[in-house]
Structure formats: structure tokens, C-alpha cells
């Protein structure tokens, strides 16, 4: 009887492992299988129609797929970097304030409470060419007398989406970097001052290295749900105009549910899953590495 | 003398720039949200007015009244959605918290092989994009027959929240010195009692904030809910927002009112935990 006794850590982790296998792993295995079939929602028996790597070949030779792939990577790179920079700037500005910091911190967290889909609707409203806040303001100020088609023009639509995405996530970076700024020990900064460092030098060589773990935590958290941009894009433009803002996720959603071509959609889904997993592992690696450099590793 | 003046001018410009930058940043962060709140009180005529009406001259509760009585355009059953959201979010949070506590405790207190790999492995399950996961989940749930039920969505949200809950709670248990529990065990407590009487109360605030974080994730989730729910029996509020849209028109006022209803609980909860949340993320991550 005692031979079957499991180690305590495994017993404690077992519920988590079971639920994650049931809801994440098993469906993923199923979708891996169906990505090798010509499964269509409308014809359930087509799930037994094995087509080998056909769906993957189709995806990899599809111009639309690569356009969406490139756009997704571009959006993630631009958005994550800008969020990091803005968050850093915001945190530095707030940390320099002497009075009312609590209020500022609270205001900073405001966008974090908005559901991504709500952010989508909110910016669809604000960038609306007819009744939106942005166009109304521009027209009232006399900057332009024409309605700027924010969500109808391809480039402007991409800009609007990036703006919405940055709006939601900058505070995540801001709040975490601010926590990092509070935790910086004073001695190295004073030593830098005594040694005659300029403000920029002490920021670059003392403050920034110390903040890096905090930046990587924010990056790791963000990489866990970058796909939340799907909600925003789907509401704001739904991939349009003329697929100019089509991302991997909207393309997958459309292929799977609207065209009902589940097998093909799952094949593309797998490629996007690997993209997400790559980002996550990359930032968790960076996180442990920068921790070790600061001597905080376990 | 000249350098002194120069210095003072520079300090004043810096101060001015700092104030200006901070002011702009806060405006950008707050105005879009406040715009939604404002429009939920304005009549549709005024929202659509051209040229725009900048100073509202007619604020009323019409959109809220229409929303709650279900007689608005399309008659959106907001109260049902609210109840669905509440039941699903609360239940999935409680379950995720229990599972997360067990898992987090295991990571914080025990040493085992492949610990780091296992941790990242758990986190990676969270990174699977909702839309990619929703396709196979939809097929699977349809087969079992739990599409459009509370149970199905609760199951999905528990799995969604467990990795992050483990990460947070792991961090909180690490802050509790292991000596505390050891002392309790020497004094005759069992391991379970030591956990329940000593370690749990110390980490309680942190666990509560992990719970609120999980609640907000479920409360705001859309990609999965939009596929796994079909009717009013299980639709949540984020999905309900779409009821205000039709082929060519959008009832902005009504949508803003529902948005405010969604934000209020989130607002209150976030304020309650903001301090613990930051501490949890940074300690869990940095001192880990």
C-alpha cells in the first residue's frame, strides 16, 4: 500500500495538473490531431479525413497568413517596446513627485480595470470618424475640417489599434517599474554621485540595471496574455479594412468560426501557440538571468 | 552670477516640463475612460450631435433605466448577464484559489527535480491564445454537452487562472519564513495545522489579492466566453456588450451604461488590493 504513496509536492500540484490537462492539454492534443484533417464544423464526420501536412503547407504558402503573421509580430514588437518606454517614463515622473503620489498611482492603474473588449469599444467610439472624441476635438479646434477616417484607412487603423493596446498595458509596466524604483538601495546612487557621475550616467549604469528584473517581470506578465489584443482588434476593425489590420488571432477566429474550416484554423492556431510560448519562455529565461546578475537568485 | 541664474532657469524649465509631462500622461490615461462614463449619462441625440456638444446640458439616467427594465433597444437582459458574470467569476475564483494555494505552497516549500521547468511549463499553459484554445474547447465541450452552461465556463476560467494564481501565491508563501511553521510543528502541530494556523494567516492578504486578480480576469474575459456561451443562460457581460451592436448601428449610450456597470466592481476591487498586488508580483518574481 505504501509503495503508491506520492511525494507531498506532487499531491499538492496534482489538482493544478489535472485541471490544466483537462482544459488545456487535451483540447490542444485534439486540435493537433484535427489540424491534420480537413475537419469542417458543418460536416462532423470530416474529422476522420486524414490529410497529413496539407493544412500546414497551405498555411505556410498562404500570403494572407504570412501578412497576418508579420503584422502580429510587428504589433507585438512595437507595442511592447513602446509600453516599456512609456511605462518607464511614467514611473520616473511619478517617483519624482513629492505630494499626492498615492492619487497618481491610483490614476495610473485606471486602464488596468478595463476589459480588453471594453477597450475595443471605447476606442472604436473615440476614433469614430463621425461622432468620435478625437475628430470632434480636432474639428472644434479648427485643426481639420474633414472627418479623419481613423478606423477606415489601413495605416490609421493600425495606428489606432496600437494606441489602444498601449493605453491598456502601459500601466502594467508603469506600476511594476515604480515598485522597482522604490526598492532601489540608496547607497550605490550616492556613491555614483560622489564619483562624479552625471544624472544620465547614474541612471544608465545604476538605476536601469537594477530595474531590469522588474521590466522582465512586466514583460513576462504581458507575454502571458498578449493575445488579449485579439479582443481589441476584433471589435475595433475586425481585421479590416481589406485585411489591413488582420492579425493571426483574428484570421484564426474567422477561418474557424465563420468559414467553419476548423482543421485549417487549428493548424494556424498551432503556429500562433508556438509564437506565444516562445515569447513566454524567452522572458522567463531573461527574468531568471537578470535576477542572478543582481545576486537575488534562489 | 551668470551660472547661478542659468542654473535656476534650468531647474524651473525642468520642473515645468515634469509637470507638463505628468499632466499629459494622466490625461491620456484617464480621459478615454471618463469619456465613456460621461456618455452613459447623455441622451443619444447629444452623443450623435454634429457639431458636437461639448458642455453637456442634459444629463439623465435614461440609458440605465432602459438597461435595467430590459425595454431598451433590443431589450438587453443586463441583470441576467450580471448574475451570470458574478456566479461564474466567483465560483471559478474560489476553485482557482484553492488549487493555486496547493500549487503555490508546493513551489514555495518543497524541493524537487525539474522545479524550474515545471514552473515555466505551468505558465506556458496560460500563454496559449484564447482564440486558439477556444476552437478545440468548443468542439470538446459541444461533444460533452456543456456548451452554454455555467459549468463549462467555470471550468475554462479555473484553468485560465490557476497558473497566475500559483505564481502569485508562491511569492507570498516565500515571504513567510519556514521557521514559523517548523516552530509550530515542534510545539505539536501537524503539518496541516501548522499551515492553517500559522502560514495561512500570515500570507492571507496576499492570497486575497491573488483572488481578486483571478476574479478580474474571469470578469473581463471575452475570447473564450464569446464561443462557449450561446444564450442568456450563460452569457457574461463582456459578451453582452455585443448585444448593443446591430448590423449598421451601435447604441453607444446603452453600451456605455453597461460598461460603467462592468467597471464599478473592478474599480472597487482594484483599489482594495493595489498595494498587495504590486508586492506580490515583485516579491514573487524578484526574490524568487
UniProtKB/TrEMBL annotation, chain A:
Coiled coil: none annotated. The keyword Disulfide bond does not apply. SUPFAM superfamilies: MetI-like (SSF161098). Keywords: Cell membrane, Membrane, Transmembrane, Transmembrane helix, Transport. One of its GO terms (cellular component) is plasma membrane. Residues 69-283 form the ABC transmembrane type-1 domain. One of its GO terms (biological process) is transmembrane transport. It is a multi-pass membrane protein. The chain crosses the membrane at residues 12-33, 73-94, 106-127, 156-184, 205-224, 267-284. It comes from the Bacteria. It is found in: Cell membrane. Gene3D superfamilies: MetI-like. PROSITE patterns: ABC_TM1 (PS50928). InterPro entries: MetI-like, MetI-like_sf. Belongs to the binding-protein-dependent transport system permease family. This is Sugar ABC transporter permease. It comes from Thalassospira profundimaris. The lineage of its organism: Bacteria, Pseudomonadati, Pseudomonadota, Alphaproteobacteria, Rhodospirillales.
TrEMBL record, chain B:
SUPFAM superfamilies: MetI-like. The keyword Glycoprotein does not apply. Keywords: Cell membrane, Membrane, Transmembrane, Transmembrane helix, Transport. The chain crosses the membrane at residues 17-38, 86-107, 119-144, 150-169, 201-219, 252-273. PROSITE patterns: ABC_TM1 (PS50928). It is a multi-pass membrane protein. Belongs to the binding-protein-dependent transport system permease family. This is Maltose ABC transporter permease. The lineage of its organism: Bacteria, Pseudomonadati, Pseudomonadota, Alphaproteobacteria, Rhodospirillales.
Amino acid at each position: 500500500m505504501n509503495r503508491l504513496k506520492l511525494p507531498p509536492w506532487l499531491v499538492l500540484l496534482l489538482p493544478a495538473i489535472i485541471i490544466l490537462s483537462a482544459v488545456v492539454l487535451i483540447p490542444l492534443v485534439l486540435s493537433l490531431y484535427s489540424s491534420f484533417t480537413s475537419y469542417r464544423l458543418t460536416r462532423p464526420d470530416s474529422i476522420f479525413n486524414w490529410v497529413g501536412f496539407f493544412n500546414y503547407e497551405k498555411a505556410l504558402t498562404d500570403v494572407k497568413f504570412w501578412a497576418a503573421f508579420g503584422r502580429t509580430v510587428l504589433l507585438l514588437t512595437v507595442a511592447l517596446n513602446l509600453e516599456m518606454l512609456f511605462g518607464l517614463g511614467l514611473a520616473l515622473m511619478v517617483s519624482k513627485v513629492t505630494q499626492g503620489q498615492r492619487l497618481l498611482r491610483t490614476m495610473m492603474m485606471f486602464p488596468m480595470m478595463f476589459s480588453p473588449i471594453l477597450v475595443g469599444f471605447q476606442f472604436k467610439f473615440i476614433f469614430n470618424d463621425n461622432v468620435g472624441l478625437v475628430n470632434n476635438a480636432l474639428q472644434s479646434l479648427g485643426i481639420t475640417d474633414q472627418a479623419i477616417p481613423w478606423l477606415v484607412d489601413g495605416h490609421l487603423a493600425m495606428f489606432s489599434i496600437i494606441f489602444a493596446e498601449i493605453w491598456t498595458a502601459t500601466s502594467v509596466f508603469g506600476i511594476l517599474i515604480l515598485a522597482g524604483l522604490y526598492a532601489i538601495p540608496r547607497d550605490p546612487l550616492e556613491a555614483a554621485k560622489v564619483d562624479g557621475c552625471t544624472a544620465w550616467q547614474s541612471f544608465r549604469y545604476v538605476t536601469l540595471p537594477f530595474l531590469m528584473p522588474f521590466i522582465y517581470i512586466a514583460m513576462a506578465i504581458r507575454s502571458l496574455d498578449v493575445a488579449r489584443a485579439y479582443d481589441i482588434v476584433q471589435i475595433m476593425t475586425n481585421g479590416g479594412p481589406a485585411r489591413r489590420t488582420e492579425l493571426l488571432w483574428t484570421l484564426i477566429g474567422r477561418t474557424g468560426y465563420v468559414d467553419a474550416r476548423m482543421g485549417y484554423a487549428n493548424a494556424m492556431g498551432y503556429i500562433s501557440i508556438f509564437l506565444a510560448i516562445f515569447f513566454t519562455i524567452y522572458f522567463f529565461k531573461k527574468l531568471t538571468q537578470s535576477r542572478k546578475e543582481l545576486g537575488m537568485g534562489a | 552670477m551668470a551660472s547661478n541664474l542659468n542654473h535656476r532657469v534650468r531647474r524651473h524649465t525642468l520642473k515645468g516640463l515634469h509637470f507638463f509631462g505628468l499632466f499629459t500622461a494622466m490625461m491620456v490615461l484617464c480621459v478615454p475612460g471618463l469619456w465613456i462614463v460621461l456618455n452613459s449619462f447623455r441622451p443619444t441625440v447629444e452623443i450623435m450631435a454634429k457639431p458636437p456638444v461639448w458642455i453637456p446640458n442634459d444629463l439623465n439616467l435614461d440609458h440605465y433605466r432602459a438597461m435595467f427594465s430590459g425595454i431598451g433597444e433590443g431589450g438587453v437582459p443586463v441583470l441576467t448577464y450580471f448574475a451570470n458574470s458574478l456566479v461564474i467569476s466567483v465560483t471559478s475564483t474560489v476553485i482557482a484559489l484553492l488549487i493555486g494555494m496547493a500549487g503555490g505552497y508546493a513551489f514555495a516549500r518543497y524541493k524537487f527535480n525539474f522545479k524550474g521547468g515545471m514552473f515555466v511549463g505551468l505558465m506556458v499553459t496560460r500563454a496559449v491564445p484564447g482564440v486558439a484554445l477556444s476552437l478545440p474547447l468548443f468542439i470538446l465541450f459541444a461533444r460533452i454537452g456543456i456548451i452554454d452552461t455555467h459549468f463549462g465556463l467555470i471550468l475554462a476560467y479555473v484553468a485560465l487562472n490557476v497558473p497566475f494564481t500559483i505564481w502569485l501565491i508562491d511569492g507570498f508563501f516565500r515571504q513567510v519564513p519556514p521557521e514559523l511553521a517548523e516552530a509550530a510543528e515542534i510545539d505539536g502541530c501537524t503539518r496541516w495545522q501548522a499551515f492553517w494556523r500559522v502560514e495561512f494567516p500570515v500570507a492571507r492578504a496576499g492570497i486575497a489579492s491573488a483572488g481578486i486578480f483571478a476574479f478580474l480576469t474571469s470578469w473581463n474575459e471575452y475570447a473564450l466566453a464569446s464561443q462557449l456561451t450561446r444564450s442568456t443562460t450563460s452569457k457574461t457581460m463582456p459578451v453582452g456588450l455585443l448585444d448593443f451592436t446591430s448590423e449598421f448601428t451601435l447604441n453607444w449610450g446603452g453600451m456605455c451604461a453597461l460598461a460603467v456597470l462592468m467597471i464599478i466592481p473592478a474599480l472597487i476591487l482594484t483599489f482594495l488590493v493595489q498595494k498587495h498586488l504590486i508586492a506580490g508580483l515583485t516579491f514573487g518574481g524578484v526574490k524568487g
